[in-house]
Amino acid sequence: MSERELLQQPVSELLEQRPYLRDFFVALQLGMPGPGQCPAAFFAGLQAAQLAELGLDHAALAAQFVDFARHMEQFQHGGDQPVRKVTLLGGRDKQGRPEDVQLEFAPGEVVCVVGPTGSGKSRLLADIECMAQGDTPSGRRILLDDRPPDEAARLSGEQRLVAQLSQNMNFVMDLSVREFLTLHAESRLVDDSQAVVEQIFATAVELAGEPFTAETPVTALSGGQSRALMIADTACLSASPIVLIDEIENAGVDRRRALELLVKKEKIVLMATHDPLLALSGDRRLVIAGGGIRQVLVTSERERANRRALEALDRRLLAVREALRRGETIDFDF
């Protein structure tokens, strides 16, 4: 919508298309224009002294209104362009030895990060999260579509390039699951937020090992339920094109289903894991040792076949776990 259209269209029509514009008038405490009045006419009718108290004149007020509308529109639609490629340029390991790699990641790809505890897996994820430009201990650099990320967007708290699911997750707000999801959906300015909330909740219950209700306080969720909720929230609501996951296997969720959900949304997924099922579910594995990327393995057909055998074993273990939860005895022959 052009600047002229924003200023000349009746407010009732603007609010129907862009309900968030109401916040502009409320925040400045200028009152609301009449339903048939356009913003330009409303602004022209305000007293200069009234605007001076806000440090504005009529032209500045109109310019701020247009800037606000455009900023919110960009926020609603998740930025100008999707990320088509992420490139990682190697830095150095903990001993200062060069890390001679250049890796590219594409939407829909799952890349697993493996290595011993303390090897540097979390450092790698952190480099991607902050879009490192040689300014972290590893010296790595991250490019988006062959270019360094915009510095303002990189350092802005509003940038949504990366969503991260960490090992430690605690809620500190006094809200129910439904209230939390509604708050997040409304803050993202999504259309039909209640339908989105119901979708996220149903997905989270599907992922969690134990059911919960939408009225459950978020502070009462178990670790697995919390992770399931945030995985569903990331998959269904987050506009971030890159998702970083740190050891999802510790969450007690349906990890295969979680991965399917994230990949289906055409996100670039990097996942640190010790779980063989997850590691073999990725397209590639980055082997980390001593703080550096030592090897890049492409998942072979043989490994995919082995993963299917492991899945059968995993389903059996899951059945035993469920039997234990029901208080049953475990008695079967291998």
UniProtKB/TrEMBL annotation:
Q: Which Gene3D superfamilies match?
A: P-loop containing nucleotide triphosphate hydrolases
Q: Which UniProt keywords apply?
A: ATP-binding, Nucleotide-binding, Transport
A Pfam family annotated for this UniProt entry: ABC_tran
- Cross-referenced PROSITE patterns: ABC_TRANSPORTER_1 (PS00211), ABC_TRANSPORTER_2 (PS50893)
| Limits of the ABC transporter domain | 83-316
Nucleotide-binding: is it a keyword of this entry? yes
Q: Name one GO molecular function term.
A: ATP binding
Q: Which SUPFAM superfamilies match?
A: P-loop containing nucleoside triphosphate hydrolases (SSF52540)
Q: Which family does it belong to?
A: Belongs to the ABC transporter superfamily.
Record's protein name: ABC transporter ATP-binding protein
